[in-house]
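In this supplementary section we document a worked example of the pipeline. Step one takes a protein sequence of length 419 as its only input; no multiple sequence alignment statistics are reported here. Step two produces a three-dimensional model, which step three serialises into structure tokens for compact storage. The input and output of this example are shown verbatim.
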Amino acid sequence: MTVKNAFYAQSGGVTAVINATACGLIQEARRHPERIGTVFAGRDGIIGALTEDLIDTRLETDVDIARLRHTPSGAFGSCRYKLKSIEQHRVQYERLIEVFKAHEIGYFFYNGGNDSMDTAWKVSQIAEKMGYPLTCVGVPKTIDNDLPLTDCCPGFGSVAKYVATSVREAGFDVASMARTSTKVFVLEVMGRHAGWITAACGLASESAGEPPHILLFPEVPFDPERFLARVDECVRQYGYCVVAVSEGLSDASGKLIAESASKDAFGHAQLGGVGQMVAQLVKDKLGHKYHWALADYLQRSARHIASGVDLEQAYALGVAAVRFALAGKNAVMPIVRRLADAPYRWEIGEAALSQVANVERKMPPEFISADGFHITAACRAYLQPLIEGEEPPPFRNGLPDYVRLKNVAVAKKLPVFVV
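The serialised model returned by step three reads:
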């Protein structure tokens, strides 16, 4: 069989386990030298392909590739760069094919979320239209857990474990000081339109009265009066109140509470600060002393407390992506298929990229309590297995010992292309 090279890139917000996927993918590719020659990694995602900035992963030792499994963030760099329609950005798509031809690339692996699966789907389309033999496989990743068809998304389980742990620990702190100090603590977590991460905070509350007492989901329109009444009730009943809020919290008209005028590279409104706004509302209307925190990058980079299940799935999906490609499966994405809740059992399945691209999975109504302020037993049964297991990284001098790859680029063969 003809040996072809492969292109792999990471896209969008990185996670604690995306490098585990890269590890699985590269290790599996190295097991098939008769089919796959070099795995080129795009420096900073798809931009690396457009600018012909290709990293030669052959120059990384087997030991260092294995160390990717316990290293957070994106080892090859990621990007927020969305290719528009083929009609609008045809020159860019044609440039991708030119680069792939120049470096004899026959396999395309794109590791990301909703927008990234859209890119992978479009690349498969343009390759077909141009008659270029390219096998395209999307590899799922998103802490937001909002990709359709898969049971869960790599990266989410670890974020879920981090925020549930953090809100539990902070809850103990606030409870111990509430009589004479802070009575309300607000934790803001990520989640633009889907409240999966906010829901995960609810795992910390296993009995009545345990924090978090209130969860604010993007799926539930924010009603200030109802919220304040619930806060006041919690403070009177428990002496304090812990709140977890999604960055994508919206009002009854659908307007984001913390939306700014600026946009990111995908055209999404920049968010942040809703936790402070909610906390200030409590202070202004109820007079309670408060503290608030923004989990921000900490929640998605916390490899030291990653979920064992999440790590296992992230690695397995990287391996599956290569096996799919070698089996001739094109324009597909490997997924996690749940077989049972307790004990949790799962297997690898597949989905067509055309059914995944730009489709967003929100929290189902049956996962949100009737009052809109917490999770249901069904939600807990879904979430609980995803945070199970620990596989801490090795430590050196008291700190996590992570790998930094050499990331040496191959020589360019084409004229300079400006993105």
